[in-house]
């Protein structure tokens, strides 16, 4: 797993990363396919599944259960597919605007396969270090091999060659196109204002940083890992070559990867020494580990037994232990109530688009509404799992107030068994701007500016502390 997003390996003349030989692929008529063709074809197919069928990208890129066309590729071709898809989805509105500006009339109704071929080709030429001739040649070949698109092969050639000739001018023309789809940008503007919404949108154009949570001695680990200590107490790594497991301290279980914003909710409890705490929706276990290190006697609950197995493996590497329970959180009834509960609820994940640029193309307003309703049911149930006086931290990685501020306000308005425990800005130096007037955490990806070569920003997160009153 290559984690250096800022120093890309060069692509060779066929568009693959150098140093690896891919397996040979053959087209339907037994004529050897052009080198790199299978990778572009897989990228085009997967892009269509994301945009047209709302299929999440992570599952299709899974090495074991992913898209068959992707799994059939060698690792260098898989790397190319991932690079194409991340660039295409991250810059999709700009790419579509560029293509539209070069067409005399819109593409025919239903020509989605042609659209995806053009987007994949343009993404390589505009945003990746892939030779233009390779992107053009293979895109034309894709069109020729698809009966639906064969008659448009000359159009594909003309459009992509113009992109190659006029690249700088085209990039300048589309520079002002927002990176997010219009429906979500409108929701951001309503919640945060037009200026902030555009800043948040622009952060999607840059890959996310790699943050780690350390067991102890953040300053020491920052020096050893060539990182910087964050206001959350974690460490942000500079760009590097290699894999996470190869870094100092990983095998010894001294730290784990966790975005700075994701590390905040568990910290809101303070010390948990002598207290029982349940981590609801616990896998993969980063927050569970934090609760254990805070001194809590932790029960980690998740609906998926497989995800709990992964959690247990992660805790074992860290030398930590928790009781694990496989159960539907909405139906979970413990023998004894807990002193505290952490509910990091399933959500639309719209705060993580730098890591998952497919999110805004696989979700819509109706998904946010459904997830908000689920979160509300889970929060109401979580309040019944703690003793009177016990704390519940509710959090998620959505930027939409419907899944955060609005939901919590409604629960507090409609029940007398909980009250808000305001978070104090002075307790979070460097992140004061993330504390709302009501005392909730609201991070947005444009926060946490850094210098000295370190990536800025963090995931969008919402977190609130509630106390059960009776």
Model description:
About 40% of the residues lie in helices and about 15% in strands. Helix 15 (about 305-320) links the parallel strand 6 (about 295-300) and strand 7 (about 325). Strands 5, 6, 7, 8, 9, 10, 11 and 12 form an 8-stranded mixed sheet that branches. Strands 2-3-1-4 form a 4-stranded antiparallel sheet, covered by helices on one side. It is α/β, with parallel strands linked by helices and about 475 residues long.
What key attributes describe this structure?
470 residues, alpha/beta, eight-stranded mixed beta sheet, four-stranded antiparallel beta sheet, 18 helices, globular
Q: What's the total helix number?
A: 18
Oligomer: single chain
The largest pleated sheet is described as: 8 strands, mixed
User: How much helicity do the residues have?
Assistant: 40-55%
Annotation, overall tally of beta strands: 12
Mean pLDDT: 93
Question: Which secondary structure elements does this structure contain, and how are they paired or packed?
Answer:
Layout: H1 37-53, H2 57-60, H3 68-71, H4 75-90, H5 92-101, H6 112-127, H7 132-145, H8 153-165, H9 167-173, H10 182-192, H11 194-203, E1 210-214, H12 218-224, E2 227-229, E3 235-237, E4 255-257, H13 264-267, E5 276-280, H14 286-293, E6 297-302, H15 305-318, E7 323-326, E8 338-344, H16 359-362, H17 365-383, E9 386-396, H18 405-414, E10 418-420, E11 441-443, E12 461-468
Parallel strand pairs: 5-6, 5-8, 6-7, 8-9
Antiparallel strand pairs: 1-3, 1-4, 2-3, 9-12, 10-12, 11-12
Summarize this, please?
The protein contains 18 helices and twelve strands. It has helices at 37-53, 57-60, 68-71, 75-90, 92-101, 112-127, 132-145, 153-165, 167-173, 182-192, 194-203, 218-224, 264-267, 286-293, 305-318, 359-362, 365-383, 405-414; strands at 210-214, 227-229, 235-237, 255-257, 276-280, 297-302, 323-326, 338-344, 386-396, 418-420, 441-443, 461-468.
């Amino acid at each position: 797993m290559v984690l250096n997003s800022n120093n890309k390996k060069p692509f060779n003349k066929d568009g693959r990363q150098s140093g690896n030989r891919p397996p040979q692929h053959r087209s339907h008529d037994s004529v050897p396919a052009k080198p790199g063709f299978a990778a572009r074809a897989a990228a085009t197919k997967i892009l269509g599944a994301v945009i047209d069928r709302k299929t999440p990208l992570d599952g299709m890129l899974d090495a074991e259960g992913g898209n068959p066309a992707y799994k059939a590729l060698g690792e260098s071709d898989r790397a190319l597919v991932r690079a194409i898809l991340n660039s295409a989805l991250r810059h999709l509105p700009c790419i579509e605007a560029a293509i539209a500006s070069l067409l005399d009339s819109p593409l025919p109704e239903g020509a989605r396969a042609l659209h995806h071929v053009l987007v994949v080709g343009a993404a390589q030429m505009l945003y990746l270090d892939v030779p233009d001739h390779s992107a053009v040649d293979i895109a034309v070949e894709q069109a020729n091999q698809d009966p639906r698109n064969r008659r448009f092969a000359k159009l594909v050639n003309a459009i992509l060659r113009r992109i190659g000739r006029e690249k700088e001018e085209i990039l300048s023309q589309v520079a002002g196109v927002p990176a997010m789809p219009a429906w979500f940008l409108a929701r951001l503007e309503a919640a945060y204002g037009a200026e902030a919404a555009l800043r948040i949108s622009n952060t999607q154009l840059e890959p996310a940083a790699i943050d780690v949570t350390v067991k102890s001695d953040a300053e020491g680990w920052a020096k050893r890992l060539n990182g910087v200590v964050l206001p959350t107490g974690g460490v942000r790594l500079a760009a590097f070559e290699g894999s996470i497991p190869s870094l100092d301290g990983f095998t010894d279980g001294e730290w784990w990867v966790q975005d700075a914003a994701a590390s905040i909710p568990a910290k809101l409890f303070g010390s948990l020494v002598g207290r029982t705490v349940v981590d609801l929706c616990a896998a993969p276990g980063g927050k569970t580990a934090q609760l254990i290190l805070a001194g809590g006697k932790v029960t980690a609950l998740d609906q998926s037994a497989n995800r709990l197995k992964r959690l247990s493996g992660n805790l074992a590497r860290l030398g930590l232990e928790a009781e694990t329970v496989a159960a539907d959180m909405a139906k979970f009834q413990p023998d004894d109530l807990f002193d505290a509960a952490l509910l990091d609820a399933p959500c639309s994940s719209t705060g993580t688009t730098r890591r998952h640029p497919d999110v805004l193309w696989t979700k819509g307003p109706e998904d946010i509404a459904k997830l908000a309703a689920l979160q509300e049911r889970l929060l109401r149930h979580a309040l019944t799992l703690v003793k009177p006086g016990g704390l519940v931290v509710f959090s998620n990685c959505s930027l939409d107030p419907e899944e955060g501020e609005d939901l919590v306000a409604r629960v507090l308005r409609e029940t007398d068994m909980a009250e808000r425990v305001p978070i104090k800005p002075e307790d979070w130096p460097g992140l004061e701007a993330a504390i709302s007037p009501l005392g909730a955490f609201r991070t947005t990806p444009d926060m946490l500016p850094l210098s000295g070569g370190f990536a800025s920003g963090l995931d969008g997160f919402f977190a609130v502390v509630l106390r059960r009153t009776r």
